[in-house]
Amino acid sequence: MKKIMVTGALGQIGSELITKLRAEYGAENVLATDIRRIESDVTEAGPFEILDVTDAKKMHQLATDFGADTMMHMAALLSATAEENPVFAWNLNMGGLMNALEVSRELDMQFFTPSSIGAFGPSTPKQNTPQDTLQRPTTMYGVNKVSGELLCDYYFERFGLDTRGVRFPGLISNVAKPGGGTTDYAVEIYYKALEEGKYTSYIAEGTYMDMMYMPDALQAIVDLMEADPKKLIHRNAFNVTAMSFEPSQIAASIQKVMPNFEIAYQVDPVRQAIADSWPDAIDPTAAKDEWGFKTTYDLDKMTVDMLEKLKIKLAVN
Ligand code: AKB
Fold this sequence. Notes:
By secondary structure, the protein is an alpha/beta fold. It has helices at residues 12-25, 41-44, 56-66, 79-84, 86-107, 140-159, 185-196, 214-226, 247-257, 269-277, 285-291, 299-314; strands spanning 4-7, 30-34, 48-50, 70-73, 110-112, 115-116, 127-129, 163-164, 166-168, 170-172, 198-201, 209-213, 238-239, 243-245, 262-265, 281-282. It has 2 domains: 4-168 and 214-239, Rossmann fold (3-Layer(aba) Sandwich), CATH 3.40.50.720; 170-211 and 242-282 and 296-314, UDP-galactose 4-epimerase, domain 1 (Alpha-Beta Complex), CATH 3.90.25.10. Helices cover 46% and strands 16% of the residues. It has a 6-stranded parallel sheet with strand order 3-2-1-4-5-8, sandwiched between helices.
């Protein structure tokens, strides 16, 4: 039985990953950690500890006391926030990752951390972006993600640590809101559709980015961690995606359910520049071939599910 320690457990991915892992492996086998405590299922339905990931000593202590054999390191600043404070982003994203890798090496744990489409840059092929290609990102977040991919590969090659990772696209979810990402518009739009019937997008019409619904993202993490290591040619990190769309297409998908929904545009130059530097659509073939990556939600199916779930959460008709 796995004993899994998760950092950043109250973040957008962590909040739902914890529930999924506790259902798969047993609540007592999943230790959720985060820098803050916000009462929720994450903190109440299983073990929870406060952890600042820059505190290597406490991370080591918690992992040892829990008897963890798997580390899922999710704590990180997203792209737009990292751009606002690059030095802090470097210290948190790289310092936290280094600590998590070292603790995992010392305790011989299996290791997962997400990379991102942000690991690509303007010189990367924009269409059908290959698994192995040019990675010269122009954002601090991207620099962190490429460095992280290299560092995780280094720990695998040098120390034999079982490191695995994916390059997540924008993740769309209805539990915890993302904070400080470039793709966040694709979550906000559903909230605003239900709350106000309209949305003003900070990303320009015609800007394509890869996206995926959270249930598919969580399944991808579990499937990759369970994959036969002999079949993995790559490790850090696999391209994964479910769909690529631009703002008017997600608006059109919402209009199929809410015909009066309206979209307008007021472009934020910082987040637009980040989006422009990322691929339009990445190629997940390596993930499919090496560990059977698959998705179940396309744009319209996701829209129906998002609106149904958010209606209940926001108590709107
Ligand atoms: C962001 O927009 O920063 C993230 C990501 C694609 O890594 N959602």
